Amino acid sequence: MNLRKLAEGKECQMRYPNVCNGNPATTVLAHIRMAGITGTGLKAPDLLGAWLCSSCHDLTDGRTHLSGDGAERVRLSFFEAVMRTQYQLLKMGAVK
User: Fold this and answer.
1) CA-derived radius of gyration, the chain
2) Global confidence as pTM
3) Inter-residue contact 84 to 13 (CB < 8 Å)
4) For residue 44, which of 9, 32, 38, 86 sits 20 to 30 Å off, Cα-Cα?
5) Which of the following is catalytic: 20, 31, 50, 52?
């Protein structure tokens, strides 16, 4: 199953306060970045991604920044979004 395609039109699973645009039309599968999993020219497997709206995706990829919110809070929110996405995929029967 194409998990990237499946993200289209889904609700953002990060829902970062004062960032999330709440528009499912902008949702994509955003991939985790983590040493030992990703690197130069190496993208994480789709299963380690989260359904994020364009605004939350920009935040996790560092294209936008929030004053007062540390990188660790953003990172934790992204990890939680990965778990929520995996739960949705399980409920849909897209993964086992």
Assistant:
1) 13
2) 0.89
3) yes
4) 9
5) 31
